[in-house]
Amino acid sequence: MAWLRELREDVASVFERDPAARTTLEVVLTYPGIHALIWHRLAHALWRRRWLALARYVSATSRFLTGIEIHPGARIGRRFFIDHGMGVVIGETAEIGDDVTLYHGVTLGGTSWQPGKRHPTLGHGVVVGAGAKVLGPIHVGDGAKIGSNAVVVKSVPAQATVVGNPGRIISKADDRHRERLDYARSLGFHAYGVDAGDPDPVAQAILSLLDHLQAVDKRMDVFCQAMRAAGVNLCDAAVPALKEEDFAGVRDQTDKG
Questions:
Q1: What is the end-to-end Cα distance of the chain in Å, rounded?
Q2: Does the pTM of the predicted model rise above 0.85?
Q3: Which of 23-27, 35-39, 183-187, 210-214 is least confident?
Q4: 3-class DSSP state of 209
Q5: Which residues are bridge partners to 122 per DSSP?
Q6: What are the Cα distances from residue 154, in Å, to 104, 126, 145, 193, 229?
Q7: Would you say residue 189 has pLDDT above 80?
Q8: Which residues contact 56 (CB under 8 A, 6 or more apart)?
Q9: Which of 18, 41, 49, 216 has CA 20 to 30 A from 250's CA?
Q10: At 133, is the secondary structure helix, strand, or coil?
Q11: DSSP three-state, residue 168
């Protein structure tokens, strides 16, 4: 069944993006973002069938139970993750792509009372930080990141990072930065929040480490090819994957500092 497949994907996305998640039962029973999605899919199905009042009633019930307000007319893609969720508001004409993450207090709102498209469109893989406001019929490109408490009223290019009020672009990911992040993901490590233009010395250290590891990997590939050509198989053992939860303690200590 389609709804069950979507629910499984939603639960899997929680484990991918929240190291605090422990079991499937815990996620299904205690994560308001999952509950809000279930309610929204029901409300959206009613809205599309023009049962508008009933759709709004379902949506209002969801808001009362979860603290998350999603208009039944909003269109949401797959593997959508709302972390914590309290105070999230998503307007009627908002459109959200696949693999998008919103944190608590986010508003996808409008700037006009005129009918028609009034709310933003978020591309695939967008991350919107806590308290951010994305307003108006603007487009946020694939892979863009909106910083906490930013107020965004203009379209954002793909892979860009926006911070501040009013929102300003502090970096656009170049090919080298995308290559770094692709390499990190190939190791099983998602370098969340690490940006090429970030002045944070920890972020810069991670980027330098990724550059160094990639250079070593390329050199080792050449070495292994030569060894295999000589009939020696020393490079077949799998390299242990890095996991984001392995760095949670270090990240917490850094935040406290």
A1: 48
A2: no
A3: 183-187
A4: helix
A5: 96, 140
A6: 22, 15, 14, 21, 55
A7: no
A8: 43, 72
A9: 216
A10: strand
A11: strand
Q: In the numeric block, which tokens belong to residue 71?
A: 């208009």
Task: At 74, list the tokens.
Answer: 């909003």
Measured over the CA atoms of residue 12, residue 249, residue 190 and residue 153, the dihedral's sign is: positive
The total of other beta-carbon atoms located within 10 Å of residue 213's CB is: 15
Q: Residue 1 above 90 pLDDT?
A: no
Instruction: Kindly report the number of other CB atoms within 10 A of residue 44's CB atom.
Output: 20
- Domains, the chain, in order of start with CATH, read 2-172 (2.160.10.10), 177-256 (no CATH)
Pairwise CA distance, residues 202 & 194, whole Å: 9
* Rg value, the chain, Cα: 21
Name residue 53's amino acid.
Answer: A
What token pair was written down for 9?
């994907």
Q: How confident is the model at residue 247 (pLDDT cuts 50, 70, 90)?
A: low
Distance CA 69, CA 75 (A): 13
pLDDT value for 229? 81
Torsional sign, CA 252, 8, 32, 159: positive
168 forms beta bridges with 163
Alpha carbons 156 and 223: distance in angstroms, whole number = 43
